[in-house]
Model the fold of this input.
Amino acid sequence: MKLSRLKVFTVTSLSTAFLVALVIILIVVTPLKEYIPGYPKKEYRQMLIRNSILVDSLENELQNKDIFFQNIKTIIEGGVPEDNYQNADTGTQPGDIVFQQYNHDSVFQDKILEEQLNLSLNANNSQNTDLSKIHFFIPVKGMVTNTFKSSSDHYGVDLVSTANSLILSVLDGTIIFAGWTLQTGYVIYIQHENNLISVYKHNAELLKNIGDKVNAGEAIAIIGNSGELSTGPHLHFELWYDGVALDPELYIDL
Done:
């Protein structure tokens, strides 16, 4: 049989294409790809998946922390923060990872956050907290002169007491703000367990600094009349739970 140049070229091209396809299939479906220079090993790919999930989780928690501290700033300035922790998300899904799919809400991810990052907001615990079972200390012995009125932006109660009375922490906690503001004078904010925050305004003197640990009933300030919004010596006391202002008289026998 006489071979023409066209037949030779066609046979050669088909043979070459077949061999290339065969090599590609062998590389893809067999462990041969592990021997290709530059191709990541299985353990490296697993590490990349883990790190991708870890970074995404860290971004979510950092964003939640930013929202938390923004809420604290809003409270300090006299505003009402938005309870939007559950809405924070970077938008990255495990399906975006090339190597394999991953369940974003898995127990494995939660363990990474709790044990390695230690940035959990403990939201689930706080939602199940029965505040009526918590024993609050009275911040100062005195008389309530102005009650909680959220409709008029008065998110706490005003207590009048004797001069130089000590202001006490209502629960164990950590000082997250201690300083001066133009409108409310010397102010202390205390972070407690279960996402509770207590606020003490218009003090004459602060006895604690940011970062200090305090016990329930421990003196943290001296009653005063500081700040532009003060109308006389008194304590303006606020109680916040999960970013929502509570009526202190419902939980503390003032």
About this structure: The first helix runs from residue 5 to 29. The chain has three domains: 5-35, 42-121, 133-250. Strands lie at 143-146, 157-160, 166-168, 173-181, 185-191, 196-206, 213-214, 219-223, 235-241, 244-246.
